[in-house]
Design goal:
2 helices, about 140 residues, about 40% helix, two-stranded antiparallel ribbon
Length: about 140
């Protein structure tokens, strides 16, 4: 007598994933990415804005210190670097050191001992973009 060929049954050890299970897992991953990417993007923008605020604060403080020490304001941001007040001019939010907008102080006295009034009394960003607070970076 011949035995009928019976297909081998799959054992639980050999079982794979069904298409439905794979679709559920991929859907969950996409939902998590949809939540995570905007948060990550917002974090990057906040970090760039915090860096801009710190650079503005540093540059304006150093301009004031230079004016107090030399009794005249610097004529350019490069004067701060050559005098040793900063190692290098920091980048603007645009990613360049050439976009800083300097505020000229014609007739403005920053210190009591100041002899010359022509030069830089402040600095602003040269970017035309708007920050997360709704104000232009150039007005910070």
């Amino acid at each position: 007598m011949r035995k009928a060929m019976v297909p081998a049954k799959s054992t639980p050890d050999c079982r794979g994933f069904t298409l439905i299970e794979m679709m559920v897992v991929i859907s969950i991953i996409l939902i998590l990415l949809g939540i995570g990417i905007p948060i990550y993007s917002h974090t990057i923008v906040r970090a760039r804005e915090d860096n801009l605020r710190q650079n503005l604060e540093t540059l304006n403080r150093v301009i004031y210190q230079y004016t107090q020490d030399k009794q005249k304001p610097p004529q350019s941001l490069d004067d701060l670097r050559t005098a040793g007040y900063i190692k290098e001019i920091p980048e603007d939010i645009t990613g360049s050191v050439d976009t800083w907008e300097t505020e000229q102080g014609d007739g403005t006295i920053m210190t009591l001992d100041q002899k010359d009034t022509g030069g830089i009394i402040g600095v602003h960003s040269g970017s035309s973009q708007v920050g997360s607070d709704g104000k232009a970076y150039s007005s910070w």
